[in-house]
Amino acid sequence: MDLRSTFTDVRESLTCPRIKIDLMLSKACGNHSFFTDVVKKFHRQSTRLHPKLPLIPFFKYGVATNRLPATYDAYFMAIEGSARRNIKKAMRNGYQFQRIDFNRHLADAGEIHRSTPVRQGPMGAEYLTKDPDPVTDPPSSRSIHDYVYYGVLKDGKLVAYGATLVAGEALFITTIFGHDGYKSDAVVPLLIAGIAKEAYETYPNVKYYIYDKFFGASPTLRRFKKKFGFEPCTVTLTL
């Protein structure tokens, strides 16, 4: 994206809804120290100055946010009809959403990464030349903070996955990949909706479902995010 487009997005973001998200760092006391560290690191990275606009925090304007309604049924009916049809299509075709042990699916994850050399930009060499490394994140003992992997599978094969950070009032998609060969089966829409359902069922403090930035994404990705109820917001993160 060129500098002119960036400034255009910043101007548009000034009219976005403003929300304050409490990451509830104090509530991480008593959980594994990993969660205190990961919340602090996320806050530090999110509030650092933007590399192109050095007076603006990196993760503040144009954050793709779904301000979750009271129930999952309300969420499901609020997303666009085409999104609901995508989800139902994936389920009809036998795909299943579930929480996963990422380390049991490293080969499948590597195949997902290598299924296309270009996504929103060229895939890095580390994705295209080897399977991902195992993760060593500890389990969480509380619902206020967590770091979880979810996947979409068929016949035991992982075809899409996402990593998510739960921090107080928000659930952030930090990583998301779908196998290019299964794209037409709507596996990523099923993944996005499944994660939202998990927020309702497992993480009662979560009010905001966040999928990275809205401004800065390609027009196609912006349209995709909007279809699932993610709209640009101006976000203030507090510890």
Protein model, in words:
- This protein has 239 residues and is an alpha+beta fold.
- The protein has helices at 3-13, 33-47, 72-78, 81-92, 106-114, 125-129, 187-202, 219-227; strands spanning 18-22, 63-67, 96-99, 145-154, 157-167, 170-178, 208-213, 231-238.
- An 8-stranded mixed β-sheet has the order 1-8-2-7-6-5-4-3, with helices on both faces.
- Strand 5 (157-167) and strand 6 form a beta hairpin.
- The longest helix is centred in the C-terminal third of the chain and has 16 residues, at 187-202.
- The model has no long low-confidence stretch (mean pLDDT 93).
Strand order of the largest sheet: 1-8-2-7-6-5-4-3
What is the molecular shape?
A: globular
DSSP helical segment count: 8
Helix content range: 25-40%
- Radius of gyration over alpha carbons? 18 Å
How many beta-strand segments? 8
Mean pLDDT: 93
Low-pLDDT residue spans: none
Percent range for β-strand residues: 15-25%
* Strand and helix order: HEHEHHEHHEEEHEHE
Oligomer: single chain
Distance between the termini: 31 Å
Largest sheet: 8 strands, mixed
Tell me the structural class. Answer: alpha+beta
Q: What descriptors fit this protein?
A:
alpha+beta; eight-stranded mixed sheet; 8 strands; 35% helix
In short:
Helices cover 35% and strands 24% of the residues.
